Automatic annotation (TrEMBL):
Protein name: DNA replication and repair protein RecF
Lineage: Bacteria, Bacillati, Bacillota, Bacilli, Lactobacillales
Highest taxon above the source species: Bacteria
NCBIfam families referenced in this protein's UniProt entry, alphabetically: recf
Keywords: ATP-binding, Cytoplasm, DNA damage, DNA repair, DNA replication, DNA-binding, Nucleotide-binding, SOS response
Compartments in which it is found: Cytoplasm
One BP annotation, GO: DNA synthesis involved in DNA repair
Amino acid sequence: MFLKKLTLRGYRNYDAADVTFSKQINVFLGENAQGKTNIMESIYVLAMTRSHRTANDKELIGWNQEFARVSGLVEKANDSFPLEIILSKKGKKAKLNHLEQKKLSRYIGHLNVILFAPEDLSLVKGSPSVRRKFLDMEMGQMSTLYLYHLVEYQKILKQRNAYLKQNRRSGKLDETYLAILNEQLAAEGAELLAQRFSFVKRLQNWAQPIHSDISQGQEMLTMEYASSFQVTSEEDKEQLMKDLLKQYAKHKQREYEQGTTLYGPHRDDIKFFVNEKNVQTYGSQGQQRTTALSLKLAEIELMHDMTGEYPVLLLDDVLSELDDERQTHLLKTIQDKVQTFLTTTSLDGVKKDLLHHPRIFNVRSGHIEMESE
């Protein structure tokens, strides 16, 4: 798939912008604070209905603007359709083929994107919440079923936490109502666990040879889905649900005292091992970066495997963070295969011989101008 056109109205520092892209590599050149990352963010918003930089949609609306609109034309092997996101003070609307989608879960997945920014290099050494977000965002694009169960899980989790917190203050607990919440949460949690175990295993299968190649055969990458309680990937959904219910029963008093749910997918993590050593704890910065790069490149292949289409790749000022070897591996992997958007202040540090016929755009003060090809 690729994004053929992008139109912005009232988005951040863009009053108006209309851009037509290459199917291969699109480079946005410009000094810092001119709007390069805003372009990347707008493509991400078009795909995911939300920003990767802020949870407050109002920040995306330009100064003195009533609303912001991001629209684009997506082309796939056998299809072509418009997408549109409208953000206002009242909320947001998502349109697919000009039809408003009442549920965002029915919109997400029509444009698949993988974002690789400098902060993604901290995917390995960052907090568990960063890796959980990584799982949810990537899996949600590939599977509407996962996204549905994630939304349901988060909704019930919010209800259960609110109930525990409320009754911690009042000192009263309706056991029947809590049992209903437990059953519902455990059922959705079991669905997420089963799909996450499968996803991490498949991601490892793609990431292992990539990591070995980057490290010239010196390193072997393995991954482990780390649940907040003792559970294995061999268990079926029925058993996973029983395991969750046991945790709620066993730690009922502790959860009641703390007013929150202490066990489940919202507390889980992924562990990475290089040559059987935990790379998060004992790995060098180079090993951690190689692991992060391997994961991103593996995502591209896994997404193609699961959806039948290669995703759009967003490289936001990340090439300058990679040494020549890792940069070469990245560019060779995506060459003539994945539509890529790349931001940089200069092409001086970029291996230009690996950029095949890039379409270059100069960005200055919220204006985009294409260089003649």
